[in-house]
Design goal:
Helix content: 10-25%
Structural class: alpha+beta
Oligomer: single chain
Low-confidence stretches: none
Length: about 120
């Protein structure tokens, strides 16, 4: 089960990296799923962000940077090279919880692309 959580529960010091790009607008997540996006900024730019947890234990964020295509949202998860495959393993469950088909993913980080 995916539930929205405060960003402080998501960004707990781990480095977050993009894991997948989803071909959906912010409005899809807001209107269809009731996910609320806030605004924040980092060294790159400003962005809209929502914090989520899978099964109450796997934190992730949906982020759309200013200037990125309006119909794309990036899924970020904590970067842990030791457990990289787990992030990829969670993607089907995440998509199911977000009511999204696999075809909505336009890019996914491959294990060889680990940071």
């Amino acid at each position: 089960m995916i539930r929205q959580v405060d960003l402080a529960e998501v960004f707990t010091g781990a480095e977050f990296v993009p894991q997948a790009v989803i071909n959906r607008t912010l409005e899809y997540f807001e209107h269809e799923l009731g996910i609320r996006f806030g605004e924040d900024a980092d060294d790159l730019d400003t962005y809209k962000v929502a914090g989520l947890k899978v099964d109450g234990r796997v934190p992730l964020a949906l982020i759309q940077y200013r200037g990125h295509p309006a119909d794309e949202v990036t899924l970020y998860m904590a970067h842990d090279p030791e457990r990289f495959s787990e992030a990829a393993d969670f993607l089907p469950a995440i998509l199911e919880e977000l009511h999204l088909p696999r075809a909505s993913v336009t890019w996914i980080r491959e294990p060889s692309a680990a940071i």
